[in-house]
User: Fold this.
Amino acid sequence: MGRDNTTIREATESDSTAIAALAGELGYATTPAEMRRRLAALQESQNDAVLVAVRAGKVIAWIHLSRIPLLESEPFAEIRGFVVTESERGTGVGTQLVSAAEDWSRERVCPRIRVRSNIVRTDTRRFYESRGFVVKKTQNVFDKTLG
Assistant:
């Protein structure tokens, strides 16, 4: 158990509906079935983990982590997705999940952890900076839909 009776654990298939609903809070609408499929694929990966924060039997937050092996440098961990339900923001659950992510990263011999965030999410930037993250670069993200 964590602070305030919050448990941090690996996500299970039965968490898919709650994870999908939380993703929707950040504008990433998905169905429980789609989330179940995505979660299953990540659970098969040796380089990914999805952790959830549970309080009173309810999933209130999740974080997706990846170990990124590189040719040009040592591997690092990356927070690929992270959401705390709006009513729980500011309660410390986000800090608990980031701490768990750092532990996961250390266990996988990753000397650093990275997160990317849209520049319009100013509260998110303050959250990460207050936990020791520093802005390393600004970049463009190019996307191409393949048909």
Observations:
- The chain has a mean pLDDT of 94.
- DSSP finds four helices and five strands in the chain.
- The beta strands are 6-10, 48-55, 58-68, 76-84, 113-115.
- The first strand starts at residue 6 and ends at 10.
